[in-house]
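---------- Forwarded message ----------

FYI, see the Probable transcriptional regulatory protein KP78_17980 record below. Original note from H. follows.
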Amino acid sequence: MGRKWNNIKEKKASKDANTSNVYNKFAREIYVVAKQGEPDPESNQALRVVLERAKTYNVPRTIIERAIEKAKGGSEENYDELRYEGFGSNGSMVIVDALTNNVNRTASEVRAAFGKNGGNMGVNGSVAYMFDATAVIGLEGKTADEVLEVLMEADVDVRDILEEDEAVIVYAEPDQFHTVQEAFKNTGVTEFTVAELTMLPQNELKLPADAQEQFEKMIDALEELEDVQQVYHNVDFGE
């Protein structure tokens, strides 16, 4: 994989905290998935995934409970799940996932964020085929060999296991998200540094300094949009 997931996650988590957007985004996502299925994570796997992600971003329990109670209360507030695909300079690619109650507004804002920062939106399918849906689970306190041993004993197949910074990152098929977590929870692990269902690029791209600066501004503009939940791209921001 070669993906420095920890560095990217820390950068995003820090930026989201500074804009005070992350809690609102999680509240909306929790409400939507709780309303679509049972408002109980034990019987709603999609909700369990969101709650595990929220835990790694330190989302307050009060915000989580409020969103679930809102879903239980039969709120008539509805959101559409949308995916936009687009391009930056030098062959850079971007996927934007959104939850919105106003499709026209969101499409206009996403298009503007691309256009004002040297990018442009593409048609559905123009970018997504170059990314793989992936479960990413990270934990500390174990070596890659120890992680492999745990997974082998639990008879869990994964794509890759990498030591990245001070953590071990497991890359697996999306439907193995809970299986991988349970294998570690059964050994006493209670905290995960990363718990994501994401879209990872099949190949990463290094941009020249000026192009990278503009690309980062575009990503920032997209992530700051209220309706945007996730932004994925194929640019390597590493040194």
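H. also flagged this: Helices lie at 5-19, 22-36, 45-56, 61-72, 103-115, 144-153, 177-185, 209-223.
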